[in-house]
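FW: tagging you since you asked about this chain on Friday. Here's the raw sequence from the shared folder, copied in full. Didn't touch anything.
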Amino acid sequence: MVLTPEPRAPGKGLWAAELPRAAWMVMTGGWHRVLAGMPQGDGRPILILPGLFNSDRSNFAMRFYLNRLGYRAHGWGMGRNLGNRTIGGEGEELFARLRAIHEEAGEPVTLIGVSLGGIMARFAAHQHPEWVREVITVSSPYAGDPHATNVWRAFEWFTGDRIDDPAMIARREAIAAPLPVPATAIWSASDGLVAGAICHSPDCRNIEVTSSHLGVQMKPEVLRAIFAVLAESA
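HL: got it, structure written out here
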């Protein structure tokens, strides 16, 4: 029997190239073509969750284009993402924000999460599927060992959590379980911070892109993939 090797963190070359690749993407993105040919949105509410140490500012482009298409895109409004320090030990702050949007809109909310934000989106969907329409994760390492990333030490530093803590392991396993709502994972095999292999799973639709981790939420290819998924689930 041939054993499949465990995913490893991206190599030093990809890691070192993260900033140059992100900068090149911003300079050459082709922003004028992002919305070309994309169908109009249906006004559904969308909650966008940022990555580790990022705030709503990191997702300004995604919110801008989603709103231009006719969706109702919301930031999470909780400042920088410091894990449980921000959303509460049981996720209560995140759940309160999700519930408020759900009640205001009168319909389930689509969750789009970038990196750690995607992990949180899956957590929320497992806990409160009645408030969630679907989940889209972007470069979110929810499906494997966090040691297969180059950011696990930063995660521990910013959040105060330890990835080998039994409670954290149990939560990771629960988050990786099949979701009770439709799910899509957008990921890159050339990601320099997290292994692409742990950013998707068989239970959801998988869309591979070519991207760095930094700035992935602004990459036109990623934005257009998100728009297409939303259009198909209208």
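FW: The beta strands are 45-49, 72-75, 109-114, 132-138, 183-188, 205-209.
HL: agreed, and The radius of gyration is 17 Å.
FW: great, closing this out.
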